[in-house]
Design a protein that fits this description.
Elements: H1 2-10, H2 22-33, H3 51-67, H4 71-75, E1 77-80, E2 83-86, H5 98-103, E3 117-121, H6 127-135, E4 140-145, H7 148-160, E5 167-171, E6 183-188, H8 195-199, H9 221-229, E7 234-243, H10 248-254, E8 261-265, E9 268-276, H11 277-282, H12 284-293
Parallel strand pairs: 3-4, 3-6, 4-5, 6-7
Antiparallel strand pairs: 1-2, 7-9, 8-9
The structure holds S-adenosylmethionine (SAM).
Length: 296
């Protein structure tokens, strides 16, 4: 693990898709190469490795470095909101800060309002939808994505957590396949990287589906479409939560009067806003105008 962490750091791989430091990432890769579980009894730390095991560890870490494959894809899983999920190149590695909101019940934003139906719009491999369904057994969850690949991974994760009866998966271009569905809570982590940012991103991102990352020249295209179409699917007292990352600044410039509440996480602001349905309806005309200007 010490050797692996040193190699990862010296090779300047991007750490951050699942673990946030090289030592933890080396630890997961080493344990995966040895087919051992993440939590090991202390005596295992004293054990000596066989040559064949050392070779397997070295090969995995060298592949991580040479090909810049995210560790979650090499391992085949990632942790999200306290849950282990399958992860591979069919969808982005789950890493949204929305995990923290799921674990604290979306408080204080949801308050005491009654929630029965929720939507994870752009669900990818299903992390947010599954997190919500597991943490809130009283919620009926829909997970929606355009990508059939991502949805097939989400279906595997749904089966892993035995959520077939409470999590419906839908293939759709944003809201287009939904008819009269109305949700008290819509959560979304849509694509929001600008074309220029994508061109300059580290190699790890090239292994992830581009459809999940880029969203026009300023990263706001998908979010503007969501803001335009959400009112039809949000309950009167509904709440919309959207992650836009670095596109926060561009979005604020486009919609200075929209009452987006930028959420403070334990590590600070992460480009995630909460917006009440009534406030969205109030600022809706400007959103419609922006979408028309962009031919969205
Ligand atoms: C940033 S990823 C988020 C995935 C997952 N929610 C997560 O947090 O890991 C964005 C997702 O949006 C999906 N997507 C992109 N354009 C879409 C569209 N027009 N309609 C529905 N889903 C779309 C991509 O396939 C991708 O899975």
């Amino acid at each position: 693990m010490r050797w692996g962490a040193g190699r990862l750091r010296a090779s300047r791989v991007l750490i951050g898709h699942s673990e946030d430091n090289a030592l933890d990432e080396a630890r997961s890769l080493v344990l995966h190469a040895l087919h051992l579980p993440a939590r090991l009894p202390a005596p295992f730390a004293q054990a000596r490795l066989l040559d064949v095991e050392i070779a397997a560890i070295c090969a995995l870490i060298e592949r991580r470095i040479a090909e810049r494959v995210p560790a979650a894809y090499l391992i085949g899983s990632a942790e999200f909101a306290g849950l282990r999920l399958r992860s591979d190149a069919r969808a982005l590695v789950p890493r949204s800060p929305i995990a923290e909101l799921i674990e604290n019940g979306f408080q204080p934003w949801l308050g005491r309002r009654t929630v029965t139906r929720v939507l994870d719009l752009c669900c990818g491999g299903g992390s947010i939808a599954i997190g919500m369904a597991v943490h809130r057994p009283d919620w009926q969850v829909d997970g929606l994505d355009l990508s059939a690949d991502a949805l097939s991974l989400a279906a595997e994760n749904r089966a892993l957590h035995r959520l077939e009866s409470r999590l419906r998966l839908i293939q759709s271009d944003l809201f287009s396949a939904l008819k009269d569905e109305v949700y008290e809570l819509i959560v979304s982590n849509p694509p929001y990287i600008t074309d220029a940012e994508y061109a300059a991103m580290p190699g790890e991102y090239r292994h992830e589906p581009k459809l999940g990352l880029t969203s026009g020249a300023d990263g706001c295209d998908a979010t503007l479409r969501i803001l335009r179409d959400a009112p039809r699917h949000l309950a009167e007292q509904g709440l919309l939560i959207v992650e836009v990352g670095e596109a926060e600044r561009a979005l604020k410039r486009l919609l200075p009067d929209l009452a987006m509440d930028w959420i403070e996480f334990s590590v600070g602001q992460m480009g995630v806003f909460a917006l009440e349905a009534r406030d969205l309806r109030e600022g809706h005309a400007r959103v419609v105008q922006l979408c028309a200007e962009r031919a969205l």
